[in-house]
User: Which sequence fits this backbone?
């Protein structure tokens, strides 16, 4: 029997750290549900609406906030808003699946306060130089934007101690195996399986 509350896996990390690729590795596991965030930023050339983000206007976002439709929401770089809709948590409860969130540090702290049983994973690049190389390889940002992202990356990484696990993404295959192991191990926590354990004990007569 699955616990009534889904396991909520939070994945954070600086832009360019490879967290989206590692989230895909988690989603390869059975019974995982992906939460598609909402954002007011414009989609990049490679992005499809509804796949990794739902792209909406700022008035639409504000209306969702007023209706209390977000589990968490935050403004990034002082301009664009991002939010995690509550409906995916409700869907996870209804379908007996576990929920995967890819959110920033601000959002992760909000979710942790509301869902203390959630498991938070932070993805780090192996170095500043490596991160800059990855960001530049995307060819999507100006030099000023790249420097802003690198500065923010350092600020985000200073929050590592508020997370349960750290994945250093210096080898994609190994990092993928590690993040899957974290997800599977988190499903095996005693606190998540007490109901089933008690049922097994009852079958032994106590």
Assistant:
């Amino acid at each position: 029997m699955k616990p009534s509350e889904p396991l909520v896996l939070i994945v954070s990390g600086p832009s360019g750290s490879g967290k989206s690729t590692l989230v895909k590795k988690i989603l390869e596991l059975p019974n995982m549900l992906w939460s598609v965030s909402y954002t007011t930023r414009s989609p990049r050339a490679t992005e499809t609406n509804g796949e990794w983000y739902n792209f909406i206007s700022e008035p639409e976002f504000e209306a969702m906030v007023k209706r209390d439709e977000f589990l968490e929401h935050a403004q990034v770089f002082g301009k664009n808003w991002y939010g995690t809709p509550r409906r995916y948590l409700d869907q996870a409860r209804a379908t007996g699946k576990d929920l995967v969130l890819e959110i920033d540090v601000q959002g992760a702290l909000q979710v942790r306060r509301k869902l203390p049983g959630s498991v938070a994973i932070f993805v780090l690049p192996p170095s500043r130089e490596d991160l800059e190389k990855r960001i530049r390889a995307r060819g999507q940002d100006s030099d000023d934007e790249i420097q802003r992202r690198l500065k923010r990356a350092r600020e985000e990484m200073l929050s590592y101690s508020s997370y349960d696990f750290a994945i250093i993404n210096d080898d994609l295959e190994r990092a993928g195996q590690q993040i899957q192991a974290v997800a599977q191990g988190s499903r095996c926590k005693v606190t998540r399986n007490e109901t089933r354990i008690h049922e097994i004990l009852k079958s032994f007569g106590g």
DSSP finds eight helices and nine strands in the chain. The longest helix spans residues 172-187. The domain at 8-35+97-203 is CATH 3.40.50.300 (Rossmann fold).
